[in-house]
Design a protein that fits this description.
With about 130 residues, the chain is mostly beta strands. Helices cover about 5% and strands about 45% of the residues. The strands form 2 sheets. A 6-stranded mixed beta sheet has the order 2-10-9-4-5-6. Strands 1-3-8-7 form a 4-stranded antiparallel beta sheet, with no helix packed on it. The chain is globular and about 40 Å long.
Length: about 130
């Protein structure tokens, strides 16, 4: 597994924006599919957005489509999640994960949670007025 560190969370008002970072050390994220997942209190973890390494194809959960953007910065070895138009129900701890480029982005985000046993510390996003 690639060691990943999430950062960039914080407290933001509804309608605000945040950019989360998923940084790796020791391995280039260019060779991995990378995904952002989140878990809100009392809810199951869910896939938010995933990005493939082969062609940078993306998947977004319906709840974030049009508001969130996933992107890769190869020089910095970071995958970002730009979040705009934040809503109360975006409040959650956000985690990133990196996989060998086997599955499409949609599959990574929607069908691989059950096989994931290890997560980083995540970064907390709180949307509150």
């Amino acid at each position: 597994q690639v060691p990943l560190v999430e950062s960039g969370g914080g407290l933001v008002q509804p309608g605000g924006s945040l950019t989360l970072s998923c940084a790796a050390s020791g391995s280039s994220l260019d060779y991995y599919n990378v995904g952002w997942f989140r878990q809100a209190p009392g809810k199951d973890r869910e896939g938010v957005s995933c990005l493939t390494s082969s062609d940078n194809s993306t998947y977004y959960a319906d709840s974030v489509k049009g508001r969130f953007t996933i992107s890769r910065n190869s020089a910095e070895n970071i995958v970002y999640l730009r979040m705009t138009g934040l809503r109360f129900d975006d409040t959650a701890t956000y985690y990133c994960a990196a996989d060998p480029p086997v599955f499409p982005a949609r599959t990574m985000c929607t069908r691989t949670l059950g096989r994931r046993n290890h997560w980083g510390q995540g970064t907390q996003v709180t949307v509150s007025s």
